[in-house]
Fold DNA-binding response regulator.
Amino acid sequence: MNTPYLVYLVDDETNLLELLQSYLESAGLQVKAFSSGAEVLSLLDEDTQPHLWILDIMMPDIDGYELLRLIRQKSNVPIIFISARDQDVDKIIGLELGSDDYLAKPFLPRELVIRAQKLLQRTYEKPGVAVGAPQTFQDWVTVGPYMISEKGRQVKEGDELIELTTKEFELIVYLLHNQGLALNREQILTSIWGEDYIGSDRAVDDLVKRIRKKMPKFPLETVYGFGYRMTRV
């Protein structure tokens, strides 16, 4: 893209905030840094929105979970959680609420830069998905009661739009391209999270759980002891 990706970074640790902003900007990203969740509430309704949010969970006024909920009411923009709480339950809660990645403190700033870059690339640098350009609603595919547009990154049931996170949509598309094949968790992790992902494969099960909740009639089967399969349509 011609202009830098815009990142909103929210963390109440001032020193860490400045350090991460410096690293992200050195990597060519445009960064706006905020030291509290309350500072960004008024920005959620503005026309200009970031390409990526990076949110701390433990903030004194509005925590990252609540901020994520508010963002997801308006946008499916990618979100990375950073937190001093390195517990599986915190990661799962974040993923269930709609985050796309989770990084536990302490971490190397360079790792956050790499994860941010890869998430931005997977989200925006695909054929037919141009940053800042109107989305084209083409190539609709019918799967049961659902209409899916890979180019438009949209899923509908009848006239109702189904709100999916970035990774939920990416898994739907991945399954569409591999109908009838049994896919193990490692294959799904590599495709959706990237080869450098170092988290648990429980993230796959959580992602499938969220899709089944939002799209209960989507033909996604569990291959016990192995992974998942979308039946051919």
